[in-house]
Amino acid sequence: MINEFEILETMKMFSEQHLDIRTITMGISLFDCCASTPEESCQKIYDKILRCAGRLVEVGDAISKKYNVPIIHKRISVTPISIVAAASGAKDYTMFAKTLDRAAKECGVNFVGGFSALVQKGYTKSDEILINSIPEALASTDFVCSSINLASTRTGINMDAVRDMGRIIKLTAEATKDRDAIGCAKLVVFANAPEDNPFMAGAFLGPGEPECVINVGISGPGVVKHALETVKGEDLGVVAETIKKAAFKITRVGELVAREASERLGVPFGIIDLSLAPTPAVGDSVARLLEEFGLETCGTWGTTAALAMLNDAVKKGGTMASSFVGGLSGAFIPVSEDEGMIAAAKSGSLLLEKLEAMTCVCSVGLDMIAIPGDTPATTISGIIADEMALGTFNNKTTAVRLIPVPGKGVGDSVEFGGLLGMAPIMPVNTQSCSDFINRGGRIPAPIHSMRN
Amino acid sequence: MQQDKNTAVVSVLGKDRVGIIAGISNLLSEYNININDISQTILDDIFTMVMIVDLKDVVIEESDISDKLRELGDKLGVQITIQHTELFNKMHRI
User: Chain B residues with CB inside 8 Å of A15's CB?
Assistant: First the structure.
């Protein structure tokens, strides 16, 4: 029996607390789109994406109306292009990015992820071509997202790639400087990248994934915050329990939508990514949720502990609600996309170093952080190296999405608009690490990688 | 309240006034949607009416009912939503 209280509670979650399905992401394998010329390969890619995802937006909208649940994004992730394009003989993969962009626009989705390479242990020739194509590819497309896996607990850290990506991030910023370096908002580097992640910019369909699959990412920091408002002053055990219950309900909505989308599209259901993904809207902030624990401003002492507990309780509630949980699953802490993080960064309470500590216990990493445009490439590589080390040695996913905004410095801010939000430029430690970065080579896998 | 696979919850939130139930039941009958149950209450100072309706013999696309009810809600000055019952079962029941 459903009672009025439950109905009202549910409606408020959607109308006042910003609960939504953040994304239905269709993963499409492009293995069968390899061809001996880039033109033929691109044609196959275009045709296949349209064949698989042509109805994705229509079905998403219909499900949204049936349950009156907002489904914010419909997106596509594909097999890493460095694998698909390898046989084509192309010397530059920008045309593959343009093909993905064209297909995404035709399908009506708003992002396509998979301009990617997995280089945790070393480069293939194709990986190198792809990485060098990134600045031009992201500057000449609107919806393509790129991700590079640089490290894993099993293999250690590819420091050559870490060095190169510092340079590529700078070049991407330069190539899109007329739009405040927005190219960098579509580029992320990972340690231990999940192969079924539905969230951008890091979504791609890993080599071990099926032909076509539906992965769903949920969100709802506002719902959890609202739940915590009802237990003010109670001890942290009560807080954990409250978060778990809220996470359970949120995840069930995701599971329902995922199963229905999978059935209507005739595509298997993959995973639910039970993340707390903020938006710049007031009331949809992870930082404000952390402050609800009893912190004056996000970034102060206690923030890491609160985030650790939040992340863990979300997973515990969510795993009970769905049998197939995957992707990133946890709390996201992007700066520009979170109203409370923006305020905390502006006030000086939230610094890059604190964010790094927070990434040890959140679901991803240093995300959507604007830094001065004159930050050297090697310093960016140094930030990446530290973040990769956290992921590799702590056996978790970490990522870096930094935006060195050309011509801007600390005190300025940058406006991307929409869900990408705005970000104050954050200060970066200016001491050099270039001799360390220029050593190159690999950081060996940690001892606890040897589990066999 | 009776719930099975083909039912949905129509909920109305807002200020009470003449003609809400009449308006909604007219619209529903037009599309051959039967009302299984109605209850109304005041929760948090908001007039709340909940209907469980049967979509078994419905003669309109699901997504269109949602639009029609929203339009009617705008006219009556209340918020009307229709959500498949499965949503509530999933969220509130293990």
Answer: 79
Write out the H or E segment, with its range, that includes residue A98.
helix A94-107
Each of the 452 residues of chain A gets a pLDDT tens digit; together they read 677 788 888 888 888 888 889 999 999 999 999 999 999 999 999 999 999 999 999 999 999 999 989 999 999 999 999 999 999 999 999 999 999 999 999 999 999 999 999 999 999 999 999 999 999 999 999 999 999 999 999 999 999 999 999 999 999 999 999 999 999 999 999 999 999 999 999 999 999 999 999 999 998 898 999 999 999 999 999 999 999 999 999 999 999 999 999 999 999 999 999 889 898 888 899 999 999 999 999 999 999 999 999 999 999 999 999 989 999 998 999 999 999 999 999 999 999 999 999 999 998 899 999 999 999 999 999 999 999 999 999 999 999 999 999 999 999 999 998 888 999 999 999 999 999 999 999 999 999 999 88
Name chain B contacts of A71, Cβ cutoff 8 Å.
Answer: none
CB contact under 8 A, B63 and A61: yes
Helices (H), chain B: 20-30, 62-76, 85-92
Give chain B positions within 8 Å (CB) of A255: 90
Cβ atoms of residues A86 and A34 within 8 Å = yes
Residue A101 near residue A144 (C-beta atoms within 8 A): yes
In angstroms, the CA A440 to CA A435 distance is 9
Number of domains observed in the structure of chain A? 2
Tell me which chain B residues have a C-beta less than 8 angstroms from the C-beta of A249: 91-92
Report yes or no: A67 at the B interface, CB cutoff 8 Å: yes
Q: How many CB pairs under 8 A join A and B?
A: 73
Superfamily of domain B7-92: ACT domain (3.30.70.260)
Q: Residue ranges per domain, chain B?
A: 7-92
Distance in angstroms (rounded) separating the CA atoms of residues A370 and A377: 14
In this structure, the answer to whether residues A239 and A111 fall within a common structural domain is no
Range of the domain at A379: 217-440
Q: Does B82 touch chain A (CB under 8 A)?
A: yes
